[in-house]
Each structure stands twice: as structure tokens, then as C-alpha cells.
Specification:
The protein has about 200 residues and is mainly α. About 70% of the residues lie in helices and about 0% in strands. It is elongated and about 65 Å long. The termini are far apart.
């Protein structure tokens, strides 16, 4: 059982590296097995299909990012800092998390925007983040469409990451700040007004 778990993880990690290196269309079970250092035939003892393996790799990335965000959301409850500063700290940490794992980010971008993701993995992807969506819902005005707003944040983050990893934009503080300002511009109109009151000030 332990050997099978180890093999599954090796195949999943191999899948991430192969997709990141070669692209989704050129990813084969043979390439994945070679990358994992295991027999190609053994893939089908661990997974029902190549698509099931890709879904498992995608789910691993979702779980890792959801856990990271859950751990870092606590910073949004610091009362003695302006809300925008707290939001930037969360953004900056999240940005460094995804760009610091280049293969994982490239794999994610390629699979997330594929037709296969929409067909086989998207529902599980949404479920993975439902707890986080519920945790931040009270941050926004009652009339805000929180699901749509958070998906917009997510897609904007991925769009900027793709531009950085593609060499179109530098990975520096200016890009980090610029990306944040783009996201903040459409998030802040939906934030409850009382959260935006500067610490120590009295509401009008």
C-alpha cells in the first residue's frame, strides 16, 4: 500500500514536471513514467487513465494553494493596519508562493485553461475553494457576487503569472505592486465600507 502511494505521488509529480516542460499536448504516459522513474504500465495500476492522473495532479496543486491561503488569511484580521495594507500582504505572499514554484505554476496554467480541465476537473476545483469562499464572504457587501469576484481575482493572478513566466513582464516589486493595484481596483468597490475605515478613526 505504501509502495502504491509512493508510486502515485511520483507519477503526479512527474506529470507536473512533464506538462511544465513539454506542454499538455505533448505529455504522454511514457514521458511521465520516464520522469517518475517507473514503468509506464504501472500508471494504470495507480490511475484509471491518463486523464485521471492529470486530474490528480491538478487537485494536488489546488489543495496546496487552498491550504496556503487558509493559513495566510489570518493576516486579514489584524485590526491596527489599513485594509489595503493587509490585502497587499496577502497578495504578496500568494504571488511569491505561485511564482516560487515555477513548474507547478506552468502546469497549472496549462491544465486550468484546457478543455480537459473544464470537462473532468472543474467541479472538484470549485469544491476545493468553497471553504475559503465562505470564509471571506462577510468581507464583501451583501449585493456583491462573491464567487464571480473571487474567480476574477484568481484569473487575473494567473494572467499576470503567465506574463511573468513567459518573459513578458519582470518578476520584481514593480510587477507585484502593479498586479495588486489592478486587482484591488475591482475588489475594493465591493468591500464593506466599515472595513475600509482607517484604524483609530471615527466613522462619519
Amino acid at each position: 500500500m505504501k509502495r502504491e502511494r509512493n508510486a502515485k505521488q511520483a507519477f503526479i509529480e512527474g506529470t507536473v514536471r512533464v506538462v511544465a516542460r513539454d506542454g499538455l499536448d505533448k505529455t504522454t504516459t511514457k514521458a511521465i513514467a520516464t520522469e517518475a522513474g517507473l514503468s509506464e504500465a504501472y500508471i494504470y495500476r495507480c490511475f484509471e487513465s491518463k486523464e485521471a492522473l492529470l486530474c490528480a495532479a491538478f487537485h494536488m496543486e489546488d489543495v496546496a494553494f487552498a491550504y496556503f491561503l487558509k493559513q495566510n488569511l489570518v493576516g486579514m484580521h489584524i485590526q491596527n493596519a489599513p485594509w489595503k495594507d493587509r490585502a497587499f500582504q496577502l497578495w504578496s505572499a500568494s504571488w511569491r508562493f505561485i511564482l516560487g514554484r515555477k513548474d507547478d505554476c506552468l502546469f497549472y496554467l496549462r491544465y486550468y485553461y484546457s478543455a480537459n480541465c473544464r470537462t473532468y476537473a472543474y467541479e472538484e476545483h470549485l469544491q476545493c475553494f468553497q471553504e475559503l469562499f465562505a470564509a471571506v464572504e462577510q468581507t464583501f457587501k451583501p449585493e456583491a457576487n462573491v464567487n464571480m469576484l473571487l474567480h476574477q481575482v484568481f484569473d487575473t493572478m494567473l494572467s499576470f503569472a503567465a506574463r511573468v513566466l513567459g518573459g513578458e513582464m519582470p518578476d520584481d516589486d514593480a510587477t507585484t505592486q502593479w498586479a495588486f493595484e489592478q486587482i484591488y481596483s475591482f475588489v475594493v468597490p465591493n468591500v464593506r465600507e466599515e472595513l475600509l475605515i482607517p484604524p483609530g478613526s471615527t466613522p462619519a
